[in-house]
Predict the structure of TetR/AcrR family transcriptional regulator.
Amino acid sequence: MDEICAKSKPRDRILDTATELFRRHGIRGIGVDAIAEAAGTNKMTLYRHFGSKDELIAECLRHQAEKFDRKWTAIEAAGDARAQLSAWIRLAGDYLEREKRGCDLANTAVELHEDDDHPARAVIEAFKIAQRDRLAVVCRAAGADDAELLADTLYLMLEGARVSRQSIGPEGPCSRFVKAAEAAVRSAIGEPRQVAAT
Amino acid sequence: MDEICAKSKPRDRILDTATELFRRHGIRGIGVDAIAEAAGTNKMTLYRHFGSKDELIAECLRHQAEKFDRKWTAIEAAGDARAQLSAWIRLAGDYLEREKRGCDLANTAVELHEDDDHPARAVIEAFKIAQRDRLAVVCRAAGADDAELLADTLYLMLEGARVSRQSIGPEGPCSRFVKAAEAAVRSAIGEPRQVAAT
DNA sequence: GCGGGAAGTTACAGACCAGTCACACCCACG
DNA sequence: CGTGGGTGTGACTGGTCTGTAACTTCCCGC
């Protein structure tokens, strides 16, 4: 963990290292000095690239949001809208099995508490709204009776699964997310024409 | 907010004040000194009653868990199992409208991050498992085709709604929780014999 | 009224933190 | 060669935090 990639530029190393350490220790649980050192650089360079710790946090989340956005290309390649819904569920399930911590953006929103002016706030809100709306578009295209309702249901279940993994652990309800989400889709639309999940 | 109740004993005032301040600022966002002062007492008295800040946090959550447990008596008074499910949803919806912050126990789990030895961990895990299992019992009694699946679905949706309120705000998907949860119950069981919700 | 335990007061230790400054360095490009 | 921009270094300010110690004061039951 000393250096994510020795040859990359300091700015990129700081961004990657900070993302990793914020995830592990929380934005209040790690200091800028420790981030800079872990990134194989120093505090001054960090402050020259990002004006403050809060700006660094916001930039990390922007980076994460873009990474999530790119996953939609894989979903859109899954076939028709009904298959895309199954692909979305499968990808979310994979994420739940892989990542011990939940969504960095949601976790940061929790850690921010009453701090409404934090630069990360706008990033989180915009990203979360976009994710839900993108899901709603697929639900509509898949012919759900009430696409908005199905999108809300799936969105809430995923958010819940990610936070539940942190309170109960991986054996709890979050391990049944895929099954529950598929059931919700089936009851709103019906079976997919060609089975997408194994 | 200076003193929650001037005449109560210091221990109770500290507990109530700490619960309130932890909710507002997060467990890392408020110091024991500020808690003691807001409770109309001092740090020494706080440390004499609770051995450490971590123990105080755990005790606050234990307190909160008992408060939630007591709400089940109202749910059980709502009638048969199907009516109890609607009562559970209505109560959760009220909670979402009333409380700006989500569940203190889940939020603390997020704030704890990799700290697996924290005394609050056991409290959170036991409480969350108990809540889900209690919900599953009602789902089974209400005659759900797959009671475990319905319990997971409702539990995940509520957890998601509470965390979503903190990232998107009260206008987002969390405002449609009641509608989505009722739809999930209807699709798993059917209409209640006597309408419980207005 | 008086004794004892609970509560308040003040000060302190030791650690951590965000952010700034002055200065030295290094390397690529002209 | 040399110069300038990006980078490294260490020290520093001023603040916050948990937890402890020694001492005083208050109040309730007897």
